Amino acid sequence: MIQLVASTRRFVAGVAAFALLAGLVPTRSSAHSDAGPLRLCAAADSTAPPTPPVPTPVAPDSTATQAPPVPATPAAPAPESGKKAKKTKAPKLTKQEKAALAKSGKADKAKAPKLTKEEKAAQAKAEKEAKAKARAEKSAKSKAGKTAEPKTEKAAAESKETPAKATKPPKPGKPPKPPEKSFEEQQKEDGIYAKHSNWLTLRFGYAKRTGDLTGDGFVGYGVGYQHMITKKYAFAANVGHDVVGHFQNQLDEAFPFTGEFQRHFKWDTALRPFVGLGGGYYLRKSYRTGNDYNTAATGGAHLSLGFTSALDLHHVVGVEARVARLTGRPGVVNPTFGPGTDSETIWTVKLIWGLVY
Length: 357
Hints:
The chain is of the alpha+beta class. Helices cover 28% and strands 33% of the residues. The radius of gyration is 67 Å and the shape is rod-shaped.
């Protein structure tokens, strides 16, 4: 009977020790759920003071041996992910492997054999020739690209879809102007009166000033330049020296600097009349009259009438009559030609010879 009680106590003590060890080791969720009642009981008894273990007497002749408790195997830790995962270290190399690796690196970094000056020059020349050849090929391709290429089907379709803009018809009553003819063609048609032709003329004739004390008129001469703006209109400029009055060797002189616009009329004859309207500046002077070299400046407008005719395509002749109305020299009294007036009139008739170019 005593042995039975002792065996029962040993069994109960072993079960309690096993349960206590099983509660201390973390297990899965199912183990937690199964050990719930035991934990609650342990929590309820935790407030009570611990009871000292009661030693159990063991019979000396007991042949039963107590089995040692089996320790629970801890669960393997879950592998960490992301930044917390530990990096695996590379295996360390031995001295022989390090030496072999260094030797292979030195072999890779071995320098290429140096070139001589002749080899370097030949290599540079070859590179230059290759670059020049590449540039020539590129320029040839660009020139070939600029040449007219046949239109693709798409371009042909687009050109058919967008017709060319129709030219605007000319306004009624205003036919389009034909292109201007060359100077040679105009000169064949209009001769010396062709558009853009120029005349360089010499003039010589008679000059006279009106008035009671002017004496007789005398000679007048000068040079002129004329530009044909069109075959009908021209601009002319003239410089001259006219003796408009004299008594023996006492002279009354005028030096005109004038310009005018002319209108030329086309007749069916060799002569063509013209009319000019202009004005200018006149330098007036008396000579050998007792108060020599008394000079005054006047100005005024003039009217020209004349005829011109072409000798050939490069020469012209003609005659011109001009009447000029000038401001006078009131208050000036000349011993020979008398007192000056508010205005005076000078007229000239001169022959014309000119070079056309």
